[in-house]
Amino acid sequence: MSETGTITPETQIKKLTEDLAEETERLLKLYAAYEVQEKELLDTKAEVEVLEKEIVEREIEKESLEALLTEKDARIRDLELKASKTGKQVEHLEPELQKMEEKFAREKDRLGKVFSIAEELDNDLRLAVVELQTRDEWYMSHMSLFEDLNKAIKRRYEMIEAAAEAERQSQHMGRAITERMDEMVEARAAEMTLDEATDIDATASDSTPAPEAAASEDSTDDDDEDDWNWSESVLTGVMEKNGITDREGFIEFAKSYDMDGNRYLKGSELGAAAAEFVAKDAPAEEPASEDEPATEDSPNGPEVTWRTTGESGENQ
Fold it and tell me: Could you say which of 70, 97, 124 is where a domain stops?
């Protein structure tokens, strides 16, 4: 029998079933391998993406580092330039630095001295504050004594002032009484002098012509340009009465006593002038009283003396 003739359908089915199971098993294995490969492929793709990202990041870092390096190089060059410039400046500034160090040393010494003086002053101030506090405490504790002493001193000065004022008033009253008595004596003497001069003038006027005629008869000097006139007899009597010998000087002095301004010297005017002339020529040893007659600048004679003396007595 041939081989075909000996294979039965059951054998063939069995064989096919075995082949199908074997192929199914192989297919399952292939599918499992495929799944493993697919997973590995996905993992590989994920790794590739991660690596690509890392590559991008590395490229970015590389560019950043290159930029930093470029910037660093630029900064290094700038720093080198600045260092060279600074070195040159240091070379030029070293003398100035020495000068500044010397100035600093001097100022440091001065500051040390000032600080020492300030400390001494501060110590003195503290000592003075303590002394002042002690003095104030002592003064506050003895204030009543000082107040009483001040009152007593004030009272003493008031008593001294009162006594001095009373003494001044007493002296003022004494001077006023003395001046009043001197004024009365002087006024009486002036009245007597005026009465005598008036009597001489009245006696002479009975025997002499009018002033205009007497001027032509009794004038001492016809060539005198001033054209002053007087009675010769009255002039002689007044001069003899007062003991006057300087005729020309007395006439010039009496001209200031022309009260009426008629350039004629009457007996009263000559008498007043004589009293003042004699008082003016009195010895220098005699003290000049406050009641002496008026000087050449006050031609009013005894009457002016009386008024001036009275006013001074009132003022005193």
Answer: 97
